[in-house]
Amino acid sequence: MIKDILKVTENRMHAAIQSLVDNLAAIRTGRASPALVEKLPIDYYDTPTPLMQLATITVPEPRTLLIRPFDPSSLKTIERSILASDLGLTPNNDGKQVRLALPPLTEDRRRELVKVCHHRAEEARISVRNIRRDSKKDMEEYEKEKLISKDDLERGEEDLQKLTDRFIEEVDKAGRHKEAEIMEV
Asked: What CATH number does domain 2-25+106-183 carry, 1.10.132.20, 3.30.1490.190, 2.60.40.3210, 1.10.3720.10?
């Protein structure tokens, strides 16, 4: 029973880490990356659709993104969505594709982005701790219902804490990696 709880906990914590990695990928660094815009919601026929489902996104140069829509009629909508987003980028539309030139980041902007990284990492840590709390509660209920012994509960809680520590370290590592990427000139 404890093993089942720990397995579910590990899967949930892994999902929290994956969510953090996806969130961090969308934060702009000095280099162009398709992850920056691929999840950007585009209002395509009154349905919010991620940009990656509407176009191919390539990186022809280190500071440029090229977006080629599958449906040329969606070009204006894509352009408007990019302008309305909080990316701070100005799209150049040539009638067939959209070019996004990423200007070099200023020192102040880098510091702001690092703060955003810290905030997202803290949210992930909180998420991991909440998952731990839920699992601990489940173990305590099993012990209360006499499905497991007190010793099993203590061992399970130790294993749960080791699991939590491992995932918190992964959160910290992902945060440090993204921070170094942002501060790199």
From this structure: 1.10.132.20
Pairing mode of beta strands 41-44, 47-50: antiparallel
| Closest C-alpha to 97, from 128, 120, 76 | 76
Which amino acid, residue 155?
R
Per 3-state DSSP, the chain is made up of helix, strand and coil in percentages (nearest 5) of 60, 15, 25
- What pLDDT, in 10s, does the model give residues 56-112? 999 998 888 999 999 888 888 888 888 888 777 888 888 889 998 888 878 888 888
Residue 105 has φ and ψ, to the nearest 5°, of -75, 140
What is the total residue count of the chain?
185
Round to whole Å and give the CA distance between 78 and 66.
Answer: 12
The pTM of this model reads 0.74
Helices H / strands E in the chain, number of each = 4, 6
